[in-house]
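Model it.
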Amino acid sequence: MEKIIILDFGSQTTQLIGRRLRELNVYCEIVPYNKFPEQTADVKGVILSGSPYSVYNPAAFKTDLSPIRGKFPVLGICYGAQFMAYSSGGKVESAGTSEYGRANLSFVDNDDPLFNNINAGSQIWMSHGDSITIIPVDFKKIASTDDLELAAYHIHGEKTWGVQFHPEVFHTVDGVLLLENFLNICGCKRDWSPASFIETTVDSLKKQVGNDKVLLGLSGGVDSSVAAVLLNKAIGKNLTCIFVDHGLLRKNEFETVMKNYEHLGLNVIGVNAKDYFYGILKDVTDPEKKRKIIGTGFIDVFEKEANKIKDVKWLAQGTIYPDIIESLSITGTTIKSHHNVGGLPEKMNLKLCEPLRLLFKDEVRRVGTELGMMHHLIKRQPFPGPGLAVRILSDITPEKVQILQEADDIFINALREWNLYDVVWQAGAILLPVQSVGVMGDERTYENVIALRAVTSTDAMTADWAQLPYDFLAKVSNDIINKVKGVNRVVYDISSKPPATIEWE
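Modeled.
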């Protein structure tokens, strides 16, 4: 299968480059800047990402590009462009003040294939503190802005280009067209699709697993559900799924999801472990401790159930590409702990099977649709693995869980009734660790506060608060206060990411 290799130099938008290429029906893989694959028969081109570092920083990521340049088409983005110019004898200098935000191309070489159908005036997005000020003699300027003479270059005699802006971000208006031009230069057929992924993955799973038995831990979410349906298509009765109810799911979710899995024809064992998890979480308030306790508890429950099934050889997980990248940062720092990426196989002496490990979330949904899965399963909003434990900003008790489940249920059902559910990327209610004074039936109350959170996003890397209609918010607030015992105030979170995060904990 033809592919584009993206060398990751640590940019926050590296994943976004990959997403854009996949949207253009080209398979790509993101690898650390110094881990170019040895097998290159299917490689059609290489992209060098941006980086948080200056090329002059002693900690900057640097690698030998001689095995790549001249052998594959190459596109350097921001730091990638600066690194190629600098390592070839060019000059990169501090811009004095960092250049962030919108700019417009003032000059474009329309004869260059990278800028085919892109004209002067096109808006681009800058994000860098250094600029290329002098290029080597075999480099040719092919684009400028009013403030940046060398916005893009082409290396003579090579299919190698560099741009000092970010074509992958939304605000670069012709960014997708530029990437498409690069793919044309690479000679990509652009035939990667959900249907082709299913065909090749099912065939690969049959070869990988054979007649062995496989266990899969279901969460009720999109990723594990799609992974289960794929595996079921490949190995059928040899797949057993375990769905653990840790008592921190949404209202009635355990029962609803179990019915959905019956409809899909999956062999699922449901485990009620509410009391166990409430016990091990007693008096715990620190969010990271909650996550670790729930993760360890899940392993214990899962292992206990798994030991009842004989001759299991494989553990399957719904791990997706962002989980892999975030858990294995090239800087050595874990960005986020993912329960899918961890030590369960070692503890249980099982081989690991992750059929979705190279897909992004939107691609998982497209694959699920192609598999014929129900809309409400495919379009289910993200939900944290620790569940409501990280939406209760204090210690966990069954009473608090019930209050939050009822409030959250009113909010989510209202989004569906008002046709707002698919407009919002993620929504939920949060139980705050404060109480407020109220008046209900002429009596003074001192009860709990619920915060509502709803965001819009395309990839969860950035998010904005959803500007839901006032009459909708008023209706939800009134319903929660009137119907959920123990709540007398509802507030709405209008924070964006960054600087806030989508979840509160």
